[in-house]
Design goal:
The protein is mostly helical and about 550 residues long. The protein has 24 helices and no strands. It is globular, with a radius of gyration of 25 Å.
Length: about 550
Amino acid sequence: MIARSDRRRFLMGGMAAFTAVLLFIALAVAALLSFDSNAASSALFEPYTLRILRFTLWQATLSTVLSVALGLPVALALARQRDFPGRIWIIRLMAVPMGLPVIVGALGLIAIWGRQGLLNTALLYAGVEQPFSIYGLSGILIAHVFFNLPLAVRFFLAGLERIPSEYWRMSSVLGMNAISAFRFIEWPVVRRLVPGVAGLIFMLCATSFTLVLLLGGGPAATTIEVAIYQALRFDFDPPRAIALSLMQIAMTGLLLALLSLLPGADAEGQTQGQAVRRFDASRPLRRLWDGIILVLAVLLVGTPLVAVAASGLTADLWRLLSAEVFRRAAITSLSIALVSASLAVLISVALIRARQVISDSSKPGRLAKLLSAILGGGASMVLLVPPVVLGSGWFLLLRPFGDVSVFAPLLVALINMLMALPFAMRVLEPAFATHQARTGRLVASLGLTGFSRFRLIDLPVLWRAFAMAFSFAMALSLGDLGAVALFGSESFVTLPWLVYSNMGSYRSNDAAGYAFILGIICLILAAGGVSRQSERAKA
């Protein structure tokens, strides 16, 4: 139950937040559409544009297939070998790439797979004349697998661990071998998870920017978002940038529509709640096979992280930390991250409260349900219009008013806020729903409204959820290069842009040092969010 005064306040706040988000995105899209429609429409069907579209979809397809195909055996091995030495640390390792800035992970991959990396050094020592090149399609695939294989492992493992223990006891009684157990017990669960996992990874790979910017091999290995950036930043070809932006919006819109049609994972089977015991895990050949799979997964994900740490520690960290450019970049990045994280949490709360008002009605009509769905979709509109497209629209919109870099900090903060909104909503909405169900009647009986309700009832319970959403939003903003790529300059430097500019100037040692510092900061923030989530789950 929500008081009448709060109902009006919550609904107006949610509508205002949704209108602000919609207006920010709509102005960017309107600027793209109104710039030069004739030239943009002709550029839309150029062979170069269509080739970029084909490569974007092709690399996303290959990356998805590799991530899912390699991630599934790792998840199966982790599900079977519950007593494997260091299993919990392997699972935690699978979470690290998700909290690591993309540019930091890319540097680690270059240290392993690059021209001067460990792999090519070993190949040259073995007498191979043409070392492996990480630049181009091969590098993009390796990088996408590095970031998305752990994501697939986490999703598959969560589903496999929900299989009731009675199924495994019955498989042991029936004498099932490994193939039969996979066919009749594991595969039905995996089959329901594959479409959603593959769709999510495909979406992430199709809209990839930083990895392709760093590891792409020129025009032959360029995705739509990188081509937009190049069209504005280097060629200053607005019609081509507009055509590519419209193509990107159409592609992401189609992908989101297809993702919404994918079946969701079914609930777990009936169980008596007993601890899961895998009777097929102790066979020697099975343990050997699973051990090899897990060791290879650790090497694939862990060696780039170790390389980043080793390269960063060999840099002159004290000199880098005391440099004026680092202080300016750190202050700029932290300021932007604080603003974007704060706005993400505030707008999420406003949208969630408005949806609660609608759901609190005894019989919400179709119009009310539609309004609730629209408010919920407002947090995900950045998935339809990616950050580079938003930045391109606002770049064209503000260009007649002078130097666009003057507006850069505010624009980057707002774009980063939109990027963090879907995550903040996903963290906060279940917490608010549970809290409302537990305390709604009590609050109504006490007559608490407004700030008194928030201070006395909401904040003491929800502060962990607030802190988790805020810390992850800050980590996302601190490590993002996409939003700042169009506006980065000598007068506007963030920590990711500092790493990227040092890489472009062939100061690899300094880039490694700055990447190490940035990675540590972001991982601390992400780890703080994870630990708070664990505390809330235990509570």
